[in-house]
Design brief:
By secondary structure, the chain is an alpha/beta fold. The chain has 6 helices and 13 strands. Helix content is about 25%, strand content about 25%. The protein has a 7-stranded mixed β-sheet, with helices on both faces. A two-stranded antiparallel ribbon has the order 2-3.
């Protein structure tokens, strides 16, 4: 499968302070803690040298290890509501490097995406390896609400977020199907070269290629409604 032997690490972020769904990363979903699905998928893909859960919680650590992952405990300052990914990713990779574990690539797999499969990961990695000069790959899907239909409100007046027109008709007044195709990132996965973090101080770098997810591969559980809908999808055998 791999063109050459590469060392790749899966990084699974699982901070304990989620607000919209309390402790969502370890909340039971269809018989297991939510994080278990991402750990299992990463391990079963067979492409990772290590599967590392980054967390600030001893309880999460115990659960992650039970399902077969290794764990990197991150400081509380890298686990806040507004802590950017670059902080915990850099910290984790440097801690692993101190222990003699160095890699060519890393992949961020968020535990809120339980319908991502091992085949999803392998398909994305294959695409990434086909491009030699790409810094990273990021999962995206066609946006359901087009930004050309979105507005800023200033002084009680509206201004469009995107300005454009089709034959003189402003985008905000055009049919969705006639607008430029716009993609939104989802929680399924990201893949990047280690140098993007350790050298460019970025998790994505400058050259980012798309990985367009299929079906429910990019479904993200963040709101109570998402949880209910995900359960419906499983019960109706529309996802697994």
């Amino acid at each position: 499968f791999l063109k050459k032997k590469l060392s790749i690490v899966a990084l699974i972020p699982a901070r304990s302070g989620s607000k919209r769904i309390v402790h969502k990363n370890i909340k039971f979903f269809h018989g297991h803690p939510l994080i278990a699905y991402t750990i299992s998928t990463a391990i079963n893909s067979g492409v990772f040298s290590d599967v590392i859960v980054s967390t600030d919680s001893e309880k999460y650590k115990e659960i992650a290890e039970h399902y077969g992952a290794n764990v990197s405990l991150r400081p509380e300052k890298y686990a806040g509501d507004q802590s950017p990914d670059i902080e915990w990713v850099t910290y984790t990779l440097n801690e692993l490097k101190k222990n003699g574990r160095e890699y060519d690539l890393f992949s961020i797999l968020r535990p809120t995406s339980p319908f991502r499969t091992s085949e999803t990961i392998k398909r994305a990695l294959y695409r990434f390896l086909e491009s030699n000069d790409t810094d990273s790959l990021r999962a995206v899907e066609i946006c359901s609400q087009h930004p050309a239909k979105m507005w800023f409100v200033e002084n009680n007046m509206m201004k469009p977020v995107l300005i454009g027109d089709n034959n003189g008709v402003p985008w905000h007044s055009c049919q969705f199907s006639s607008l430029p195709r716009i993609y939104v990132q989802n929680a399924s996965l990201e893949i990047a070269k280690i140098g993007t973090v350790l050298e460019k101080k970025s998790i994505s770098g400058d050259k980012i290629m798309p990985f367009i997810t299929e079906g429910y591969e990019g479904f993200d559980l963040n709101q109570p409604y998402d949880w209910e809908y995900a359960t419906y999808l499983i019960n109706q055998q529309m996802a697994q």
